[in-house]
Model the fold of this input.
Amino acid sequence: MKDWDPYIRGFKAFLQLEKSLSANSVDAYLHDVAKLIQYFEVLGISINPEKVQSDHLKGFLKWINELGMTSTSQSRIISGLKGFYKYLLLENIIQADPTELLESPKIGRKLPSTLSIPEINDLINAIDLSTPEGERNRTILETLYGCGLRVSELVNLRISNLFFNEGFIKVTGKGNKERLIPIGTVAMKQIRIYLSTVRIHIPVKKGHEDIVFLNRRGSRLSRVMIFTIIKQLAIKTGLKKQISPHTFRHSFATHLVEGGADLRAVQEMLGHESITTTEIYTHLDRDYLRSAIIQYHPRA
Done:
């Protein structure tokens, strides 16, 4: 929002000249304020910094919490916003600080663990690729993490919904709603390997011909099987966190958002509707979503 530009420029000068902060620190502060601006844009709220109230900020924190951002990152953003409003107070631009009552996140239900990139690498590297199931399981993890899928979307993924030439896959999410998700090169390559070296040799059960992931009897995998695969890998690598297929979805969102991806793009890819209505995203084109994956996902 252009209304914010003069305030942002003033805050930047304040951080550089009066606070003598490094370029990285200045960028971090500005990045935190930019996330708040994105939030207002997504909700279609036209508001300048002087009109922001604590209720707006609480809604924003609830929103990034639902996206799967870690408590540490939420705390950092709160710190950044406090710095911004302290500056506005010092400059007599505002008379009351809306961040005064904000506390570090203790909002919503406890989120599942988020895996670090090294932890994800450890889990994937622990898979025994000498067996057909190992190659399949690696493909499952790369797809969960590379696309942020729900477990139900993974087990029901269809070959006819792989649009690799365009760089997308199509899934059926909650409420039977279809959406297109950008897919990175690592996951795409792994699916191709699995289809051409493992799945091709499985005698497929009738009715499962179009399903991507099959068990050795040629049937679609159950949700429980996906949980089991992940639990066994966690034990094998000595990972102490409680993890599930959903952990990979949260990690997908968190790594994109913390890497700098636009919140609207991440919500679109996750198929989230609890945060705001889907009509908000109709202007987001597919090239934009795909560029978000390519630019910000660790395995793109």
Notes: Confidence is low (pLDDT under 50) at residues 274-284. The radius of gyration is 22 Å. The beta strands are 162-163, 168-172, 178-182. The chain has twelve helices and three strands.
